[in-house]
Amino acid sequence: MQSFCWVKMSKNNSIKIGTRGSKLALTQSSMIREMIMRQHPEIKVELVIIKTKGDKIIDSPLSKIGGKGLFVKEIEEALLDKSVDIAVHSIKDVPAELPYGLSIPFYPERENPADALLSIKYKRFHDLPKSARVGTGSLRRSSQLLNKRPDLEIVAIRGNVDTRIKRLESGEFDAIILAAAGLNRLGLSSKITELLSPPKYIPAVGQGALGIEVRTDDREVNSLLEFLNHNETALAVRAERAFLHRLEGGCQVPLGAYAFIDKDRIVIHGMVSELDGCMVIRDSLTGSIEQPEQVGETLAARLLAMGADKILAEIYGS
Question: Which domains can be identified in the chain, with CATH numbers?
Fold first, then answer.
């Protein structure tokens, strides 16, 4: 799972970036730290390691213990009580609903949004043998894999990237699925056997993108960090998060969306699936670049009308 960091600016012209302690979290935090220092060389920037509840509970699937909020609650509390000034999230880990007084106005340029198959013995997903053991902590990934290969044995897996790769290399799995973005940021692109790319495989909302969360009324910090925003990434992620918000989705629901800019239009692909992958409802939509949220919400409404409402009702009722 990708992670995030947060930033505190003090009176002595310094910024403290709080970060989870995983290698990926520290890599992403350091990337933001370097960007800030290049843009504002007069500011001292430090990293502070913080443990979240999600880091402490690693032996249960996220869908069973509360989902994405486990990785952001402490950060958002720190933002609201003004002990920190910004949060840098992996957007795919952020719930659709933000607390009052907080917003995510800035999105650095997106990394590869695709999922990645890692395997020692097999080159492609369809090369996996019957009943192959595939490790993933994501209901969205497992449902899409089972839709294409119902014979697979999907095994829930959590832990940091290194831990998951070691379990693969020890022979515990025939393959594992991770986000390509995290592997690329860690310099582990060579571990990728095959990219499971959109639109054939729909990624998590915001996968590959980082987002800068701030207090909405903090003009000083907002002005300081405007340079971090990449407009095309921002438009795409805004559409995806509107899709997520309309479906009221979280880690308990197999859903995904991917949007991109094509000239002056925004294109979005979305999916909602039954847990076992027997039914996957998919559609895509092209709309105005001026209204990314409306495009995302409209696609979500179309999926609901196609039967996603029944899938969601069954999952939330179980």
Answer: 5-108+208-229 (3.40.190.10), 115-196 (3.40.190.10), 247-317 (3.30.160.40)
Q: Is the peptide bond before 199 cis (omega within 30 degrees of 0)?
A: yes
- HEC string of 253-302 equals CCEEEEEEEECCEEEEEEEEECCCCCCEEEEEEEEECCCHHHHHHHHHHH
* Cα 262–Cα 267–Cα 272 angle in degrees, nearest 5: 155
Q: What is the DSSP letter of 170?
A: T
User: Which residues carry out catalysis?
Assistant: 93
Query: For each successive 10 residues of the chain (318 residues), what is the average pLDDT?
Result: 54 72 85 92 81 59 55 82 83 90 95 98 96 95 96 93 95 98 97 97 97 89 92 98 89 90 96 95 97 97 96 84
Instruction: Please name the residue that has the structure tokens 């515990």.
Output: 172
